[in-house]
Amino acid sequence: MAEKKKTDINLPFFRIKEDEEGTYVKVGPIEVTERESEEEKVKLGPLRIDDRGVRMERSLNSKLEGIAWATFFILIGCVFLFESVYDFDLDGVVSIGIGVILLSLNYARSRVGIEPSTFTILVGLVLIAIGIAERFLEDVNVFAVIVIFIGVYLIIHYGRRSS
C-alpha cells in the first residue's frame, strides 16, 4: 500500500493541508474539509454546507454586533420616550450613547480575543465628542471635530502598520 503524500502550504489567503487523515483547502473565505471518517464539509463565510444542507453559523463577533444593535434600538426608544413623556430635550444623548455602545462593543471584542475595529473605535470617540459638544457647548463646529478625529485615526492606523 502506498503511503499518502503530506502537503502543507500556508500562504496569505491560501492554505492547503493534506495528510493521512484527509485534506483541507482554504482560499479566502472558502474552506473545504474532507476526512476519511467524515463527510465533506464546505464553509463559505458564515454558511456551512454538507450532506444535510445549508445552514448559517453565527460567529461570536456577529452575536456581539447583534447585541450592540439591540442596545442601539433600546437607546433610541428610551430617548424618544423620555423626550415625549417629559417634554425635555436630550441634545447629544443619542450621540454619546451610540459612541459608548461602539466602544463597549470593541471592549467586549478585545476581552474574548477578537481584534477590535479601529474604525468603530474612532466613530465611537467622534460621536462622544459630538454628543458632549451638542450637550454642553454652543457654537462648536462639528465638521472640525470630525476632521481632527480622522487625522488621529490615520496616524494610529498607519503608525500601527509600520511597526
Structure description:
This protein has 163 residues and is of the alpha+beta class. The chain has 2 domains: 7-56; 60-162, no CATH class. 53% of the residues lie in helices and 21% in strands. The protein has helices at residues 60-86, 93-111, 118-136, 142-162, and strands at 7-11, 14-18, 22-27, 30-35, 41-44, 47-50, 53-56. Strands 1-2-3-4-5-6-7 form a 7-stranded antiparallel beta sheet, with no helix packed on it. Helix 2 packs antiparallel against helix 3. The radius of gyration is 24 Å and the shape is elongated. The termini are far apart. The mean pLDDT is 82.
Summarize the structure.
With 163 residues, the chain is of the alpha+beta class.
Beta strand count: 7
Tally of distinct domains: 2
Helix/strand-derived category reads alpha+beta
Kindly, what is the distance between the CA atoms of the first and last residues, rounded to a whole number of angstroms? 51 Å
- Number of helices in the DSSP assignment: 4
Low-confidence stretches: none
Question: What is the general shape?
Answer: elongated
Strand content: 15-25%
What is the H/E string? EEEEEEEHHHH
**Spatial extent as radius of gyration:** 24 Å
Residues in helices, as a percent range:
40-55%
- What is the typical, i.e. mean, pLDDT? 82
With strands numbered from the N-terminus, the spatial order across the biggest sheet is 1-2-3-4-5-6-7
Largest sheet features: 7 strands, antiparallel
